[in-house]
């Protein structure tokens, strides 16, 4: 394996390397990473290094403003001595969560409305359209599981053995008052941020949400990947207000953030890649990369991060190698190469 070890003398403005610290949450299959550390973080379980490689999916990026060096304190007690840190929450990817849009059929003569996440041409012919029943249909009358021919619900299932699907159809009615054990239906509202290729869905609505662009309905089927579930506490009916001004009148809402998968997307598109490092003590340098194979392991790369003494970025080198066999010459693996980044750190 060759490293591009050309000398690179960086001046006062050289980029700074910050070591990573992590904490596994034993009760949940999640792990947190950050470049910040203080005694309070250590007491909470943060240790030097990166999350194990099985934490391969980024769940969220959270920016937090804390007292620098004393994160346990309230920021109102350390004016002028705060710092904004980034905490990455990682999970274990089993399979990508898929978003299914809602379709509805309003049978006005019966004063009922149906909702389902299934659609085919036969359902469309019967009147099902993208969207959700409006909020006047506020009572769940029934949940019906039906087995249909996948893509051809008009056919008898005996003619499509092995190609059936079980779908759920929700039947909704109108009620004036809530009965003790009656299930309540909450319609969906959505906001499409076309410029970012994302769409949001929630069952909460107020005038402020409407002003922001939320309207009755569901994100369309092109938004097929669940990016995040965000739980927020807002003033009930006045989400624009600070919750400190509405004590006792708050509500917890869930906002689902949806994105688009694409044919060009790779399996790693939404994945977290762990960091591997190699410490060359004789040269007082350390290397980091997100790539690993047996040859890299033989050369000394292992899971983790260069420690905080390596606080200066000397170079970033892009290398094209044989994917999975970095020891081979790329002329022997045409069509199976990968470009990796190796960061070289030094000590100030």
Describe the structure.
This protein has 348 residues and is mostly beta strands. It folds into 4 domains: 21-91, no CATH class; 103-173, no CATH class; 189-259, no CATH class; 276-346, no CATH class. The chain contains 4 helices and 20 strands. It has helices spanning 39-43, 121-125, 207-212, 294-298; strands at 21-25, 30-34, 47-48, 57-67, 82-91, 103-107, 112-116, 129-130, 139-149, 164-173, 189-193, 198-202, 215-216, 225-235, 250-259, 276-280, 285-289, 302-303, 312-322, 337-346. It has a 5-stranded antiparallel β-sheet, with no helix packed on it. The radius of gyration is 27 Å and the shape is flat. The model is unreliable at 1-15, 177-181 and 263-270 (pLDDT under 50).
